Inverse folding.
């Protein structure tokens, strides 16, 4: 098995555990980006090991730090609970004994300033690495290791071709692509992980491609 320098020395972080702090902070930050950086209220439901040790390992502070946009190595991470209260961010931690897909799993229910709700489920899988496994009730999968576009669209012919064609126009190479849907003709999510930085103007152009495209989220590589 090949190891990277990141695997050997671990991530830059504040806290005692890469899984419980660095990974948790990354999960929170990805959820923030998916919500459009608009977080007025958030409920964290913790599963497995997260639920059992979240206070001792600082998982609660790390998740909240990520939701506020902090990096895992931000020196203010340990003060995130107090900073959230000062900023008027409403938060809650809920413990669940349901069987999680991974021992270090959290569900984040985010409410934006205008009342829009976004539900993100993800797991911290070791070494500060993460995997997002559910978005708004639909099973998906991406890691945040690559620049990523998450596109919510109606399951209609031509939508995927329009999006991939636009990526070609911007000379953006797609490293991985997955499409997930509730059922035929209904809501779907297209996940594009790319080898190139995705310019922000691409997001607006993807939105303008078709009425079938409902939301576009840009997640820069973590």
């Amino acid at each position: 098995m090949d190891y990277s320098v990141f695997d050997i020395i671990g991530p830059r972080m504040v806290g005692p555990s890469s899984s419980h702090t660095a990974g948790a902070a990354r999960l929170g930050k990805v959820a923030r980006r998916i919500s459009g950086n608009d977080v007025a209220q958030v409920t964290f439901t913790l599963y497995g090991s997260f639920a059992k040790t979240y206070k001792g390992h600082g998982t609660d502070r790390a998740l909240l730090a990520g939701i506020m946009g902090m990096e895992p190595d931000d020196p203010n991470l340990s003060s995130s609970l107090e900073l959230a209260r000062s900023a008027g961010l409403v938060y809650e931690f809920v413990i669940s004994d349901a069987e999680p897909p991974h021992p270090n799993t959290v569900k984040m229910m985010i409410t934006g300033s205008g009342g829009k709700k976004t539900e993100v489920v993800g797991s911290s899988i070791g070494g500060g690495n993460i995997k997002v496994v559910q978005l708004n009730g639909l099973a998906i999968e991406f890691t945040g290791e690559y620049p990523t576009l998450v596109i919510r669209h109606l399951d209609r012919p031509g939508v995927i071709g329009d999006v991939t064609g636009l990526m070609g126009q911007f000379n953006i190479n797609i490293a991985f692509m997955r499409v997930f849907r509730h059922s035929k003709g209904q809501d779907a999510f297209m996940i594009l992980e790319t080898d190139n930085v995705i310019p922000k103007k691409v997001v607006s152009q993807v939105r303008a491609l078709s009425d079938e495209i409902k939301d576009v989220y840009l997640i820069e590589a973590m």
Observations:
- The longest helix spans residues 18-34.
